[in-house]
Amino acid sequence: MSSTSIPSDSIILAPAEDRESKTPEMSFEDLYRVVVEMSTSLEQVTLQNNKLVQLNGELIKKVESLELSVKELKENCASKKTFAQVVTAGLKSSAAQVSFIKAAEIANDTEKRNAAVILDKVELPENVSDDGQFGQALLKACEVQEDSVSVFRLQKRVGPPLLKIQLQKKEDARKMMSQFNKIKSTVQGCSSAIIRPDLSKPERERQRAAWKEAVMKNNKAGEFLFTVRNLECVKVQYKEGEAHRAWEIRETRTSNTQ
């Protein structure tokens, strides 16, 4: 059987609507959903880009700050200034020098006062001209071992002058404070004397207030139960079975240093 060939230009195509469509149909809802998802994705990408730009700006600032710090460190190292040189430079100002001098004077004055005591109501005979001899006698009576002692007379408006006994160690001053009332009757002119620390003006005010409180409490108790230690009113620590010291009622304005 012979086949008959048909020329290509004689082939007749079927109409488009008669052919089966290979593209799936998309509804309006599906299309809307796709557009919304694309818009959301684009917004997220934009936000991420903005964050990256912000982080990049912060990173640039930190790098610039680090470069500046390194530069300053190099300049400081190049100067080769020691800590002592820096402090010395700061002390060149007159205000700084005055401040340090005052601090040193205060510290020195405090140390001297801690190593001194004040005696009040000392009745030295008129023929006693050498206060050094009186100081030595006081050291011996209190059993304080020091080679030398300085005695200064502090004039008061009324009555005999105060005597300032300047020792070398604060421990010796404390020992004299603790021993004085026991031995004062054996030292010429000290039978009625009162001893106290060499206090600054604010400390003296605190001591007066503390003694005022102690006197009021002792007056109320009718016996010696309160005294002053370290500028504070404290209770006397009697040993078990020890008799309490007698107390005479006195005015609260009276200060004491027993």
From TrEMBL:
Region feature Disordered, mapped onto this chain: 1-24
| Name of protein | Endo/exonuclease/phosphatase domain-containing protein
Q: Which organism is it from?
A: Caenorhabditis japonica
